[in-house]
Design brief:
Low-confidence stretches: 1-18
Helix content: 40-55%
Strand content: 15-25%
Order of helices and strands: HEHHHHHEHEEEHEHEHEH
Mean pLDDT: 83
Structural class: alpha/beta
Largest sheet: 6 strands, parallel
Number of strands: 8
Radius of gyration: 19 Å
Distance between the termini: 45 Å
Number of helices: 11
Length: 242
């Protein structure tokens, strides 16, 4: 009986190791690498920071946790969180000035190395373009490689909603962006890296997904990732094999 149990386990282990090595190979020969931003490229969740800055942090943080865990649709969570925050243009600008997003250790070196290898780098975020553009500038990523949500304001600067036509404003949006990039640039191999459920669901159309837990570990993402890392140093190490 023991032998019968051992053989399937060995096969399962071999399959997992094979899938891991395939994911690593796809990363090494990627034509483009797409990063999530909140809790991946930067340490914090941008919308949570904005909520704290506007004095409604606790209510919004719980909703973010549900959205990232996949227990409510992304667009529903985004709509509800923003209706609580109702930030003005002035508050958003002040947040970026007073509390700029903190880069995750190792991301600058990783992006530099990807650029050296002639691998295109894109930021695909369910966060806000005004914050993500600030991050892209720090990492020398062209602004036309940024895909994120746009906040809308009235002429007096008061909150007027968000642009619901952006693909990143709804569940499955990151996958749609990757499909668009493959069509636009002719990429065959695109790798998605991120911490959340919306990142995981972008593969496919992404050729491979790498789960990132350097800032927060989401168990359901970790369980479903063929390759899960907690440091960008692990990815840099893999690029040394090129």
């Amino acid at each position: 009986m023991l032998k019968l149990l051992v053989v399937p386990y060995q096969r399962c282990l071999q399959h997992t190791m094979s899938s891991l090595s395939q994911t690593k190979e796809l990363f090494r020969r990627a034509e483009a690498v797409c990063f999530d931003v909140d809790s991946t490229v930067i340490k914090e969740e941008g919308i949570d920071e904005l909520a704290k800055f506007c004095g409604v942090g606790d209510a919004v943080t719980e909703m973010t946790r549900k959205a990232m865990g996949g227990s409510m649709t992304f667009q529903t969570a985004l709509t509800e969180r923003l209706s609580i925050i109702r930030c003005s243009r002035e508050q958003v600008n002040k947040l970026i000035t007073d509390h700029p997003p903190q880069l995750t250790p190792g991301i600058r070196e990783l992006v530099d190395r990807l650029h050296q290898c002639n691998i295109k780098v894109f930021l695909i975020s369910g966060g806000f373009r005004c914050i993500v553009e600030h991050v892209a500038t720090q990492l020398n990523i062209p602004l036309n490689h940024v895909y994120a949500n746009r906040l809308k304001f009235y002429f007096n600067g008061e909150y007027a909603g968000f642009d619901e036509s952006q693909p990143t404003a709804e569940s499955g949006g990151k996958g749609r962006v990757i499909s668009m990039l493959k069509e636009q640039y002719g990429f065959k191999t695109v790798v998605m890296i991120g911490d959340g459920a919306t990142d995981l669901e972008a593969c496919p159309p992404a050729s491979a997904f790498i789960g990132f837990g350097g800032n927060v570990i989401r168990p359901q993402v970790k369980e479903r990732s063929l390759w899960y890392v907690t440091s960008f140093g692990e990815l840099l190490k893999e690029l040394e094999k090129i």
